[in-house]
Every structure is written in C-alpha cells, then in structure tokens.
Amino acid sequence: MNLSELKGKIIQVDWRIKEVLKESGYLDTGEMEIEYDYADPEQNFLATELRRLLSHMDDIHGTLKYLQRPIAHEGILHMNQNGRYEVDGVELTCGSPLEVLVHDEGSDYPEWVASRIEADHEYYFVARRNLPLEGKRARIREREW
Description:
- The protein is an alpha+beta fold.
- Helix content is 37%, strand content 26%.
- It contains three helices and eight strands.
- A hairpin with a 5-residue loop joins β2 (78-79) and β3.
- α1 (3-23) crosses α3.
C-alpha cells in the first residue's frame, strides 16, 4: 500500500465518522447530546470516554476535509508594500492558514507544514515561531465556505 491508497481508505470511512458525529449531536454543537443516567458512575465514565473519542473523530473528519481541498495558490512568501506577507498575490493577515515548506534540522527531507500566520510585533508562522518567513516556499489551499 502507498500513501495515496492509504488516504483513499481513510477517506472511505470518513462518511461513517461524519454520520456518528451528526447522530451524536457533536457535529452541530461540539457536544455529545446523548441521554444517559448521570447518577450512574459507570455511565458517566463511558460518557466521558465517548466524548473524548468524538473529539478525536471530529479532528480526523476536519483533517480529512482539509486534505481534500485543492491547492489554490503556491509561491514564495515575501513582505508586500502594505507590510504584510503575501504568496502568489494573496495577502496574508493574522489567522491566515497556509502551508510552508520547511527543512528541519536533523531531517534529510523537506516537508510541508500546515499552520497559520500570526503577529506579535512581527509576523510569524505558528507551527515554527522562529522560522524566518521571507523567501520561504508556501501554499494555500482552496478556502472552505
């Protein structure tokens, strides 16, 4: 099996994950909306563990949705005349999601890292706060509306 095949198999189960999230109320509210006996310690334990699992399933569902969005823009990050970073003509502001190609020390290969741009006196990449952004290769996935 290769990465593409594995991704396909995981995507195949996403419909079931979404169905469980929806039926439990978690997809709409972020909370489990299931009836149980709050006075029963065993049911409280089970509810706590199932809430934790639903949270993980929600993360999986969100990541799969993200990975299926096509790359909309790719290029070199640079500071524009407005004092903001941009890539492929798209100006980035605080909270802008993007992926930056990084080559971490100790690694033999570069890797795309997903995160967002923030600012605290200077702009930074949240996943690698000390990474200099100017001149880094970056890409932006198509937005989800």
